[in-house]
From TrEMBL:
Enzyme class: hydrolase
The protein, known as: Beta-glucosidase
GO biological process: carbohydrate catabolic process
Family: Belongs to the glycosyl hydrolase 1 family.
One MF annotation (Gene Ontology) recorded for this entry: beta-glucosidase activity
Annotated organism of origin: Microbacterium marinum
Amino acid sequence: MTTIPAPNGFIWGAATAAHQIEGGNTNTAHWEFEHAADTTVEEPSGDAVDSYHRFPEDIRLLAECGLKAYRFSIEWARIEPEKGIVSKAQLDHYRRMIDTCHDHGVQPIVTLHHFTVPRWQGRDGGWYADDVVDRFRRYTETATRILDDVEWVVTINEPNMMVNQTEAKIDTEQGVNFPGPSPHVAQVIAKAHHASTEVLKGLGHVKSGWTVANQVYQAVPGYEKERDEWGYWREDYYLEQARNDDFIGVQSYLRTIVGPDGPVPFPDDVERTLTGWEYYPEALGHALRHTWEVTGGVPMLVTENGMATQDDSRRIDYTTGALQGLASALQDGLDIRGYLHWSLLDNYEWGSFRPTFGLIGVDRETFERTPKPSLAWLGDLAQRGVIPAG
């Protein structure tokens, strides 16, 4: 395999999200949704993979393979169980996670918000609540109590995916059932992000930004205008909002081909992952170049990239192809600070445990962790400081 040297200080690691791995996250609006009488969720998160209690083992396994960074999220619903009430015990819990990372020589990369909101916030309208920007600012201020030696902080994970999922909601400014992502909610989330980064910049030592789900919009020939219109409120608006941030998190899994009426289906015979997505490792390279262009050259950190599969050799193939695209972008002068694989653990994928993204397998009955060959493979790249190149 041809490789190139990774840049000095290049960050190698893996990522998770609290609701998907902790278990027992009962105070979130998402838990309510999972257990609602009319829920569309296939199965609830339950104990997830019990990482709330087993995080020392998870961090140890990451470190032992040679990876040097762990991106994880802290839970607003645990830290602020009721509006204005802060749990010192839960802050201490997440502080212990940070300390455990440092003890193992692992850089903690902390995400403040990864899809879930507290029950009380959900009942007040979620991102539609009148005072949600101020609430998120106050939550960020609370979180800073444990961030004194954390260098990288993500404010909000994939805001564009959250807004995309509000399409059927009533938007008082845009009308009922606005046919597409709500610009109003997008702008509210952007304000919350900017309020959060303002707090974080005040600490002086934190690099802050948010992560965007890059869909790699490609046009059916002749429909470039339709592609650009389709993608603006679904992706590019959020990239524009990062232009003054310290970094932007690039999250890439797939591509989307747009025709006259929106996305067009892929042929039945293309290889698909366990999520039903097309096998397309080239997406990461495209996502990095598009992000670089739209943001005007904001430093990038790959905060998620991976493949849902039970064939771990195919996971290695996919990641090799993705990293080859990253290497090409580096060689062309793009500022890419690191690569965090999704996910460290097989986990709860927002409705089902079937899509397995993990570098580490987890027995659902005993919670026993079993590192996969892909973990050692990625750790070896990190230890040697090389990136696969085409």
